[in-house]
Write a structure and sequence with these properties.
This protein is of the alpha/beta class. It folds into 3 domains: 7-164 and 317-340, Glutamyl-tRNA reductase, N-terminal domain (Beta Polymerase, domain 2); 168-314, Rossmann fold (3-Layer(aba) Sandwich), CATH 3.40.50.720; 344-439, no CATH class. It has helices at 20-26, 30-41, 69-80, 84-88, 97-107, 119-133, 139-158, 168-180, 195-206, 219-229, 239-243, 262-269, 307-314, 321-343, 345-365, 367-370, 375-405, 409-419, 421-439, and strands spanning 7-14, 46-53, 57-64, 92-95, 188-191, 212-215, 232-234, 248-251, 277-281, 298-302.
Length: 483
């Protein structure tokens, strides 16, 4: 944000603005994330970008040229394969301090489907690290995400919002308990062995689920988790057979395609002697073909069906929300003041350039007289002139930073107007770019292709009335998962 005034912007979608059927069209797997970051970073006017993509949200945080958020929306539409006018109704857009506050609240678990859950803090940190590895993050977004992580840690250490908090995996187990009552002696099939699936498996074992069957795309990982929990590892080609035995299936893989089809479940049901089968799909994108719900005797729940358990999980901790929110806002305000102080850099540079220009002009004007002085005296006069300029700039620099940090743009505008700083600074930088291009043998231009004219803003967006089921399921290119 040092060269030109940029705008902090967040464009995203989450469990409050869209159902899982829409969210899964935008979600980014870890394999896809790096390429996505580079694609967004290459868009005109995007200077820095970080993407937070979890089962319940996909949010783009970017440092942008004024008015360029529409390009982020267009990228999300392209990523989703959905109709643009439909998707725009589910997207939200936050700018400036509001975006900073939102991220701090997200990292604190205040905007999670399960209030106070802790996984999001690690996911926010991982998002920043991914952007760093992809070279799409700069000092401003790096500072913002570090502040968000700090806010999340403070909320968890200074409030009780995370005390006894459920995770998505725990909510899935509570759903299983609600369905079957006691889990003791119940056969549970777990699909996946990632953090969410592992969490669910541990809670299931705690409540006496037996046998505990674990299938994963990497069989060695399934073996490791099964050995740890006293369960039984399965290969994926054994899953259909295991469906005949299981009372409940909990699925949470990172597969980009369905791992259980209607045909597979239908085949398994013919061997269950009319026993009902309960499927809990907490993956995004979903693991289980939603058409499975039409099979007699099959009951399918997805991540959006965990509402009852989510409400129970929040009980007793609602009173901590205000304290947690105050911390998130405080940290956001601190980082926002730092970012605003950074916004003073172009003006201060232009002001400094102006004063030094006057210094050079006056020294040149009296060069004839200065030449009569001894070399040592001439150097002393030049140092004196430099010292006077720096002293004159000291208080204005401090006060300008403070006023801009407080959002008092009128002071900055007045200084720029009085000294005609914008025009002078732009002229000097344009000349410098032209000379640089000429030295490199390139065709020179005064414009910058990454900074187009601002585009008209889209109409305001927000949560859309439910249900948000797609009329026609998009033809998603769900490639086969890597081994």
């Amino acid at each position: 944000m040092e060269d030109v005034g940029l705008q902090l912007t967040c464009v995203g979608i989450n469990h409050s603005s869209a159902c899982v059927e829409v969210r899964e069209c935008i979600g980014l797997s870890s394999d896809r994330l790096t390429a996505a970051l580079k694609e967004i970073h290459a868009l005109p006017a995007v200077q820095q970008v970080v993407v937070v993509s979890t089962c319940n949200r996909t949010e783009i945080y970017a440092a942008l040229q004024e008015g360029s958020a529409q390009r982020l929306r267009e990228w999300l539409v392209q990523q989703s394969g959905l109709d643009g006018s439909f998707l725009h109704r589910h997207l939200y857009e936050l700018r400036g301090r509001d975006a900073a506050v939102h991220l701090c609240c997200v990292a604190s678990g205040l905007n999670s489907q399960v209030l106070g859950e802790s996984e999001i803090l690690g996911q926010v940190k991982a998002a920043s690290q991914a952007a760093s590895s992809a070279a799409t993050i700069g000092p401003e977004l790096d500072k913002l995400f570090a502040a968000a992580v700090r806010a999340g840690k403070r909320v968890r250490s200074e409030t009780a919002i995370g005390r006894g908090a459920f995770s998505i995996g725990r909510c899935a187990v509570e759903t299983a308990k609600r369905i079957l009552g006691s889990l003791k002696g119940r056969a549970i099939l777990i699909l996946g062995a990632g953090k969410v699936a592992e969490n669910a498996a541990r809670h299931l074992q705690k409540w006496g689920a037996d046998p505990l069957l674990i299938a994963n795309r990497t069989y060695a990982r399934a073996e490791e988790l099964a050995r740890e929990l006293g369960g039984r590892a399965l290969r994926y080609d054994q899953v259909v057979g295991a469906l005949r035995e299981a009372d409940i299936v909990v699925s949470s893989t990172s597969a980009p395609h369905f791992v259980l089809s209607r045909e597979q479940v239908s085949e398994a049901m013919t061997h269950r002697d009319d026993r009902e089968l309960f499927l809990i799909d907490i993956a995004v994108p979903r693991d289980i073909d939603p058409q499975v719900a039409a099979i007699p005797g099959v009951h399918l729940y997805d991540i959006d069906d965990l509402g009852g358990e989510v409400e129970v999980a929040a009980e007793g901790r609602v009173g901590e929300v205000e304290a947690a929110r105050r911390i998130a806002h405080q940290v956001a305000d601190e980082v926002w003041q730092w970012l605003m102080a950074r916004e003073a850099v172009p003006l201060l540079r232009a002001l400094r350039n102006h004063f030094h220009r006057v210094q050079r002009e006056q020294l040149a004007k009296f060069s004839g007289r200065l030449e009569r002085l001894a070399a040592e005296d001439r150097e002393w006069v030049e140092q004196l002139a430099e010292s006077i300029v720096n002293r004159l700039l000291h208080e204005p620099a401090i006060n300008l930073k403070a006023e801009i940090a407080r959002g008092n743009e009128s002071v900055a505008q007045a200084v720029a107007l009085v000294y005609d700083l914008v025009a002078r600074d732009q002229d000097e930088r344009a000349i410098a770019r032209s000379r640089s291009a000429a030295r490199q043998g390139a065709s020179c231009h005064l414009g910058d292709s990454r900074h187009p004219e601002p585009e008209p803003a889209l109409p305001g967006s927000g949560a859309v009335a439910w249900p948000c089921t797609l009329a026609t399921r998009p033809g998603l290119a769900r490639e086969e998962e890597s081994a």
